[in-house]
Structure formats: C-alpha cells, structure tokens
Design a protein that fits this description.
The complex is a heterodimer.
Chain A lengths: L1 H31 L6 H19 L3 H22 L9 H23 L15 E3 L4 E3 H23 L1 H11 L1 H6 L4 H22 L10 H4 L1 H11 L4 H21 L4 H15 L10
Chain B lengths: L11 H4 L14 H16 L4 H23 L8 H17 L4 H23 L4 H21 L1 H4 L5 E2 L17 H23 L1 H11 L1 H6 L4 H27 L1 E2 L6 H14 L4 H18 L4 H18 L4 H21 L1
Antiparallel strand pairs in B: 1-2
Helix pairs in contact in B: 2-8, 3-8, 3-11, 3-12, 3-13, 4-5, 4-6, 4-11, 5-11, 8-11, 9-11, 12-13
Classes of the chains: A mainly alpha, B mainly alpha.
C-alpha cells in the first residue's frame, strides 16, 4: 500500500513536470502544425537563464524563475519570426531538420557559455525542507511542483476558455483558414502562442531540474520524452497533454520502483501501444 | 507522411520528359564505375586512413538505405539505426557462435534488418506524420534497451567484441592494415548501389515515388500505398542490416550506439546535405559529413554541433534540395553560361 502511494506521489510530481514542459509544445504544434523538436531548448534555456540571473544579479530564486521564463518567451519571438515562420506548411521533414538543427545549435551555445557540466538550480529557503505526509517524508519541492502543475493547468484552462485570446487560439487550432476569414489575425496568434509555449517550457525546465537535471545535452536527451507526451495526448489538446503526462510519468515511475531493469522499455511500450490504438493521440482529432 | 509538393524533387520530372538528353547518371554502370574510381583513388591518396575510409563506406551504405525509405518512399523516420544495429549484432553473433564466414554474415545482417523492418513497419506504416515519427523513435529505443539487457548474447553496455572474420571465399584473407577490408566494403557498396539503382527505377520504385508525391492520387490509381511503402521499408531495412553487418565485420566490435538516436539523426543529416531522392546525393552527403566531422570534432565537440546545426538550418532555409544539389545546379548554370558565351 505504501509502495502504491509512493509510486503515485512520485509519478504525479514527475508527470506534472512533463506536463508543464510539453503543454506549450502541444499548443504550438496544434496551432502551427510544425513538428518542433527544439522545444527542449526552451526548457534548458529557462534553467540556465535562471541560474545566471541568481548568480549574477543575486535576485530571489522565485523572481529569477519568473524573469527567466519571460526572457525565454521574449527570445522565442524573433525565433518564430525568423525561422519557424519559414517552415509553416512545408513538409514535416523540413520542419524536423530545421528544429533538430536548432537543437544542435542550442547545445553548442549553452555548452560553450556554461561548460559541459550539470547545473544545480537554486531553491528558495522554504522549499528545501521535507514534510511528513503520513506514510512517508516528501521533499516540499516536489509538492510545490505538483501545485505549480495544477496552477498551470487551471491558468491555461481559464486563458483558453474565458479570454478573447483563448477563443482565437482555439479557432486557429480548429481551422486556421476559417479563423483568418473571420478576421482573426492568425500570425499574431501564432506568435503569442509560441511565446507562451516557450515561457511555459522554461518554467517546466526550472521546476523539473531536480528530476530532469540540466546540462547542455538536455534538449537531445529529453526530446523523445516531451514529444511522446504530445503524441500520446494529441496535438493541440491541453487536457490530453495533462493526462498523457500523468499516465506516462506514473508508468515510468512505477516501472522504476518495481522493475528498474526495464523502466524505459515500459515507457516506450506504453507509448507504442497507445499510438497504435489511437494514432492521433488520446484526445487528438484527425487532422 | 511527407508530401513533397515540390516538382523539382528528383528526376521524376526528368523521366517524364522524353527526348531530353540522357543524364550522366543514367548511362549503364556509369555511377557504379564512378564510385569504384573514387573509392580506389581515395585508397591511393590516403593509405594511412583506411579505417576512416571504410567507415565512410559503411555509413554511405546506411545512408543509401535511409534514402530508399525517406527519399523514395517518403517515410519520415528517426529510428532507422534500429535496422543497422540489429544487422550489426546479428552479423556479430553469427560470426562468434556459428561461422566467421563473411558473406553469409552479410546476408544474416540483411535478413535480420529486413525482418525487423517487416515486423515494425507493419505497425508503424499504418500511421502518418508525427505519430509515425514517434513510433520509429520508440521502436529503436525499445530494441536498444532489449539488446542492452540481453547481456549474455550482446555484452550489454560493453558491446560485442571478438568478432573474427574468415577469408573471403576461403581465399582472400583480411590483412592487418585493412586494405582487404576496405576493398571488400567498397565491393559490397558498389553491388548494393547497383541493386538500389535498379530498384528505384523499376515500376515498383516509380510507384513509391508516386506515393511520396501524392498518396491519394496513387490510391485512386489503384496502387496499394501500405503494401508499397512497407516493401520499400523492408528493402531499406535489408540494406541497413547489410551496412550494419559490414560495420561489424570491418571494425570487429558492435556497440549500443549503432542503434542510437544520434546515429539515426546523423544519417538523416548526411542524407539531407546530399539531397534525398538521389542515390548520388546520399553518397556525397556522407562523404561531406564524415570528412567535416573528422576534422571538426577533433577540435571541440560543441563547435562540431554548432557546425552541423547551422548547416541544417541553412539547408532548410536556403537549399531545400540539399547542398550537393545546390552546388551541382550552380555548376550546371555556370557551364551553360560559359558555353553560351563561347558560341555567340
């Protein structure tokens, strides 16, 4: 019983991190129909920006995390304008190549500036403690991650369901041409959506640094992980990403507890089974 | 599935215009002879780097097999190394436990590469686009983990070593300097290249190109998309397996990285640099990539990654047909201009 709860709580935290990182990708891939392998670069940059801000400017970690996420979002704007826009509507292969090229450039840039080593993300004082939740002691940080994931989920739901911008996004995801005809400036929606996705990825990278350690090869190492969530959840579906992240996160955590030998096989096998059962993901629609 | 709605891709247009002067590459045996000449010249010019040259040849064969899958059938894959690695392990295990005869070892590699392609392709070719791409990655990762955990057979993390190779036909012995190994690889490459050229020009190959260009129209014409793409995927798997077996025999070790994601991605980069949908391009792309890699990675791995990344971005934004094609076109235009000036 205790084992089950342990698996659940760790799987939940892991799944939340995966959710925060990959939800932005799901939105942008649903919006722009671009296979983006470079999403992990934003997550990594978030972590490295935050560490740089804390160590250079001496700001509080929470503030630094926020600034880093905004910084990455701002950085995403010129990238969308100069690079991604060029491959909208081009073949998937072209998109894969462009974004894999960006992954390599990102690795090279971070590796040259920060060196090839693991990076420790500073935690605020009050998150370094652990709490007893009845059956075991959990680092408070992990609970904060779960809370952050729920906040992101609710925030995105409010944004998509209740605001004008959310309506525009949903319209553009459903049918970009029709949205344009109705007077929605889709290229503006794309830009904002892309920036939002990048900023969320940065946030996820920072929050998840404990579970997915930050290093220059981060975007390549966790590329499959992030894409798997989007493919399983269904492109463009926030709720789908949430479920997929929790399921895959829990499966991998459970396998690590019970059968550590074949943990990653379980992850890929789950993904394979879901995708052969529902090729467009759990909550995806035929495009 | 990719649709290359770009009529410039491949000699498709060229083939549909009868009466145009035959392309150089369409002369019988000419491309094979060129590969042989280049290969022998390279051996003569760089006698001290034969192991590097042999590696170029095995990579070229692997990239050619990827070209069949990606360039001709239009299947976007990032897991092609699965077939290469399985072929390499099959040939290695066969050499250690059954017989060290090299030619049957190559066939074993091809057989297992083809079987894996058949088994996995049957599942993943029912999907398209991102899903298909993700499934190729997942399958390669699963196979990698299986081989990693199957220590008794594969040696796990340490890799499979101690692969011995008997003389070819029982006569020609592999020498210490790798000369025979190099010529053997070159011969295998040329033979496979010839078969592939026949394959892509056959009615089957042309149907695959048609499917790549417009799968719905081909369906309407009565071609079975699934059957053709699966067959082409298996063909690619067979050649990838042979390439893996060749690598296993010439380097005498097989590591897990032969199935790795990086190897698949690198092969993709080589193919794209050369231009896909041209078997020529696959070979030139490989040579270009391997030579740049040889010199750049000696300096600093991060600089190397930057070079590759920048090349990829540049290729996508500036030369969507591949670097080699772009250079070729430029050269052709220059020659045309010069000859025009000469006649006027």
């Amino acid at each position: 019983m205790e084992l089950i709860f342990s698996i659940l709580i760790d799987g939940l935290a892991y799944g939340m991190v995966l959710f925060i990182i990959s939800v932005g990708l799901s939105i942008t891939m649903g919006l722009m129909r671009v296979v983006n392998l470079a999403h992990g670069v934003f997550a990594m940059l978030g972590g490295f920006f935050m560490v740089a801000i804390v160590s250079r400017l001496g700001l509080r970690p929470e503030l630094a995390a926020l600034l880093a996420a905004i910084g990455v979002g701002m950085l995403a704007l010129p990238m969308e304008k100069l690079l991604f826009r060029k491959v909208y509507g081009r073949s998937e292969l072209q998109q894969v190549l462009l974004t894999i090229g960006l992954v390599f450039i990102g690795i090279a840039a971070v590796g040259t500036v920060f060196g090839n080593s693991l990076l420790a993300v500073p935690l605020p004082e009050y998150l370094r403690r652990s709490v007893d939740i009845g059956f075991r002691v959990v680092p408070l940080h992990r609970l904060a991650v779960v809370a952050a994931g729920l906040v992101v989920l609710c925030g995105l739901w409010l944004l998509l369901a209740k605001t004008r911008f959310g309506i525009n996004i949903r319209a553009a995801v459903d049918k970009a041409k029709a949205a344009e005809a109705l007077g929605i400036d889709t290229s503006r929606v794309y830009q904002l959506g892309f920036m939002l996705g990048a900023a969320l990825a940065a946030l996820g990278g920072i929050l998840g640094a404990e579970l997915l350690p930050l290093e220059p090869y981060y975007p390549l190492k966790y590329l499959v992980l992030v894409l798997a969530i989007v493919a399983v959840g269904g492109m463009g579906s926030v709720f789908g990403s949430f479920i997929a992240a929790l399921v895959l996160g829990t499966v991998e955590t459970a396998a690590k507890y019970l059968m550590p030998e074949i943990a990653s096989i379980m992850f890929y096998l789950t993904m394979l089974v879901v995708l052969s059962w529902r090729p467009h993901g759990l909550f995806g629609r035929q495009l | 599935m990719t649709t290359f709605n770009n009529e410039r891709t491949l000699g498709f247009r060229r083939a549909s215009r009868p009466g145009v002067r035959r392309n150089f590459g369409e002369l019988p045996f000419m491309p094979e002879a060129c590969v042989a000449v280049i290969g022998l010249a390279a051996m003569w010019l760089m006698p001290g780097d034969l192991s590097f040259l042999t590696r170029i040849i095995t990579s070229a064969l692997f990239v050619l097999s990827l070209d069949l899958v990606l360039g001709y059938a239009g299947i976007v894959t990032l897991g092609h190394a699965a077939m290469f690695g399985v072929g390499a392990y099959a040939a290695g295990v066969y050499a250690i436990h059954v017989t060290a005869e090299p030619l049957s070892g190559l066939l074993m590699g091809g057989l297992f590469g083809g079987l894996i392609a058949l088994a996995t392709g049957a599942v993943l070719l029912r999907t398209h686009g991102l899903t298909c791409l993700m499934m190729t990655i997942a399958i390669a990762q699963i196979l990698l983990e299986v081989l990693n955990k199957w220590r008794s057979l594969t040696g796990g993390d340490d890799g499979l070593s101690g692969i011995m190779v008997e003389p070819i036909f029982g006569v020609i012995e592999f020498d210490f300097f790798g000369r025979v190994g190099y010529l053997y690889s070159l011969a295998v490459l040329i033979l496979c290249f010839w078969i592939m050229r026949r394959l892509v020009r056959s009615p089957f190959g042309l149907t695959c190109i048609g499917i790549r260009e417009d799968r719905f129209r081909m369906t309407a014409l009565g071609a079975s998309v699934y059957k053709h793409t699966l067959l082409m995927y298996v063909a690619g798997g067979i050649f990838a397996g042979i390439a893996g077996a060749l690598m296993a025999q010439t380097t005498q070790v097989v590591g897990l990285s032969s199935l790795g994601f990086t190897w698949s991605a690198e092969a993709l980069v080589m193919l794209v640099l050369g231009g896909m949908g041209h078997l020529w391009g696959a070979i030139f792309g490989t040579i270009l990539f391997m030579v740049v890699h040889h010199f750049a990675s000696a300096i600093d791995p991060f600089k190397w990654m930057f070079v590759i990344g920048a090349l990829l971005v540049a290729v996508v934004l500036l030369f969507p047909e591949g670097l080699v094609q772009a250079i070729r076109k430029l050269a052709v235009r220059q020659i045309a201009r010069m000859s025009k000036r000469g006649t006027s």
